[in-house]
Amino acid sequence: MFDQFEVYRMMRQSNPWWNGQGGVEKLPTMYRQAYHETLDILENRELRRFVVLSGARRVGKTTVMKQVIAHLLQQGVNPQRVMYLSFDNPMYKLMGFYKVLEAYEQNVGLDEPCYFFFDEIQYAEEWSLWLKHLYDSRPNVHVVATGSASPGIEKGASDSGVGRWRVLRMPTLTFREYCDIVGAHGVSLPGRDKLKTLTEMSSVDLNGLLLGLADLQPHWARYLAMGGFPELLGMSSVERAQVVLREDVVDKVLKRDVPSLFDVRNTLQLEKIFLYLCLHSGSLINMSEMCRALEGVSMFTLQRYIDYLRDANLLYVCHNAAYTGKKGLSSQSKFYVADAAIRNASLMIDPYALSETEMGAMAENVVYKHLMYAYGSTHGLGYVRLPGRKKQEVDFAIAHPAGPRYLCEVKYKRDSSVTREDAIMTLLHAPETAGAFLVTRMPTDFGRFEEAPGGGNALIRIPAAAFCYLLG
User: Fold this and answer.
1) How confident is the model at residue 78 (pLDDT cuts 50, 70, 90)?
2) What is the DSSP secondary-structure string of 158-216?
């Protein structure tokens, strides 16, 4: 359908720097963690790897990619050796990898180092095989790709990408990244393990740290309402932001991305399942009860569609954790939406008119996202329920495979008191527990709370805004 001249002409339109028109369009000056990780991988001369950025729609994957392109151009890389194209464009989807690479090789050549940037790569046919071919046959080629749905991304990485590329998952903005964008800055903690650092601080140092973060509270309220989507930060209307989220994030994933990548025969059932999980975010879900509530949805379909929603980066699944911190599958799991603002937008809820219980569920959702961002790739992360005790549960346990465990309970209410009978107090002095955190609502509700028959670990109260800022 396309001759080489036509393909190359389209590629020049996608890469204005080839025509001497300068660099990439104006980009944000705040650089996210994914940007630094991508550059580290690209600039590593000892271990060549491709990079695939995976995350929900509108989280900023393309922005990170174009920031990397701008960096390469500023470093003096030949502009024609930097190629960007998006397979979301139907023309490139029709051409496929073969035509694009053939046109590039014939008109530019692959004899020097080249940097290819492929957006929404999951829409390219047999993309993982082509990346494998490029890696194995073209040692001068470096690739950065993005994918909004990680099913094919993760499967491609396991099938063809072992030792060839790394998948970096991008969440929505953390509270720290949000504050950096809006110009609100607080103090930082040294070291990589923030929970360990907090548990080892003296009461005086801890109180000073948390007092220094109290001014972030107004930004926290807006962050909860608007969510962590970069393009929504400038919007003054929550209602308008929710329309954008429903149309550009939720609807496109449920009605376009997932059906095109998976065997989804009933998009209405898929939407009902997602809305049910939004409504019960943070609650233990009994699958049999959920099937009865969603009349006409079989257990097989339910489990399959939940997997699709997770793979499409709309859901986190939180399993029951063993006391050692290793994940153990359970008949009941918790589900958290990728961003609390997605939940509110999908259910058309005004985030400023929530009850205390609903606010608690939203805060718990945000805390889980931050724990996933900070510890999900290196630690076991799940909830803990004491056997034989109803409602005796700790929201989250974070455990290194070869190290101690930390507990985290979200008490997002005006009264954050706990008793000795609470699960977090029962587990606080277990041998494998190194510390526990009570994440609170009020900015003045903080400090070390010693519950000590015989001494032991301290329970640290910390406001949710400070906790997420330090983790992010």
Assistant:
1) very high
2) HHT-TTTEEEEEE-SPPHHHHHHHHT------SSS-HHHHHHHS-HHHHHHHHHTTGGG
The residues pairing with 450 across neighbouring beta strands, listed in sequence order, are: 458
Strands 315-318, 332-337: pairing kind: antiparallel
In the block, which residue shows the tokens 């608007």?
226
Joined tokens for residue 168: 């970096």
Separation of alpha carbons 457 and 345, rounded Å: 40
Rg, Å, the chain Cα set:
24
- What is the pTM assigned to this prediction? 0.88
Q: By C-alpha distance, which of 345, 357, 344, 372 is closest to 441? A: 357
Half-sphere exposure of 32 (CA within 13 A, CB side): 29
What would the pLDDT profile of 281-332 be if each residue is shown by its tens digit?
998 899 999 999 998 899 999 999 999 998 888 999 998 885 443 444 445 7
> What type of residue sits at position 82?
V
Measured between alpha carbons, how far is 379 from 372 in angstroms, rounded to an integer?
A: 9
d(CA 125, CA 92): 11
Task: Please give the residue that has the higher pLDDT: either 55 or 368.
Answer: 368
User: In this structure, which long-range contacts are made by residues 201-207, counting pairs with CB atoms below 8 Å and at least 24 apart in sequence?
Assistant: 203/447, 203/448, 206/446, 206/447, 206/448, 206/460, 207/446, 207/447
**313/292 Cα distance (integer angstroms):** 26
At position 314, the amino acid (one-letter code) is: L
Structure tokens at 74: 């500023």
- Asked if 309 and 258 touch (Cβ cutoff 8 Å), the reply is yes
The CA-atom distances, in angstroms, between 434 and each of 128, 358, 403, 427, 437 are: 42, 30, 9, 10, 11
